[in-house]
Design brief:
Shape: elongated
Radius of gyration: 26 Å
Distance between the termini: 42 Å
Mean pLDDT: 87
Order of helices and strands: HEEHEHEHEHEHEHH
Structural class: alpha/beta
Length: 205
């Protein structure tokens, strides 16, 4: 029994009129894409922390299987909220992924709360900012990549638009600007910005 406990398994006793008939070991199964998602998040420079209500042995086993280095076991809902507050002070922006009803309070505290749409509790879904409709954890990685690419494109478009208009003003001031330059600075810049924004549709998984 001690060995089963160290492996993160919960032992259930089955009893009949003659006494204990069997022992059943139950264990949480790590999602197939969990390890890939954790590894991909680390590649993006994101620190991954697991907060769980499971005991130390179960938490350690699941963390090892998922590739999570840091974890906190035996967390109550209010304990998770306190940890999120600490992480926000230490790291700044913090995201939280959860699917249980006990995760609802901490999802609201995080800067970005992400819940599971298919199997998640209604309270968690209501409290979250993002809902993964197919519960695929790799979609979190894709969403982060899309957001970073969109932010980069926005900065490029702003810099390009301001740069062209400043150039147009300078040329106008020294008498070298034409009507066509004015049209390009207005309509042309808009078209180029839209074309550049289309790149956000193409993000590698």
């Amino acid at each position: 029994l001690q060995q089963l406990g160290n492996e993160g398994k919960t032992v259930v006793f089955l009893k009949d009129q003659n006494g204990i008939a069997a022992l059943v070991a139950l264990k949480d199964i790590v999602r197939d894409e969990a390890k890939k998602a954790v590894a991909a998040l680390k590649e993006l420079g994101i620190d991954v922390m697991m907060l769980t209500g499971d005991n130390e042995a179960t938490a350690k086993t699941i963390a090892n299987e998922a590739g999570v280095t840091n974890y906190v076991a035996e967390c109550l809902p209010e304990t998770k909220v306190e940890h999120i507050k600490q992480y926000k002070q230490s790291y700044g922006n913090v995201g939280m992924v959860g699917d249980g009803i006990n995760d609802a309070p901490v999802l609201t505290r995080a800067d970005v709360g992400i819940s599971m749409g298919a199997l998640g509790a209604d309270a968690a879904i209501e409290a979250s900012d993002v809902v993964l409709m197919d519960d695929n954890l790799l979609k979190i990685v894709k969403a982060i990549k899309i957001s970073k690419k969109c932010l980069g494109i926005v900065k490029q478009n702003i810099a390009f638009a301001i740069g062209v208009k400043v150039l147009c003003l300078i040329l106008t001031a020294i008498g070298l600007a034409s009507m066509w330059l004015g049209i390009f600075a207005d309509v042309g810049v808009m078209i180029i910005a839209v074309i550049n924004a289309i790149r956000a549709l193409y993000v590698k998984n």
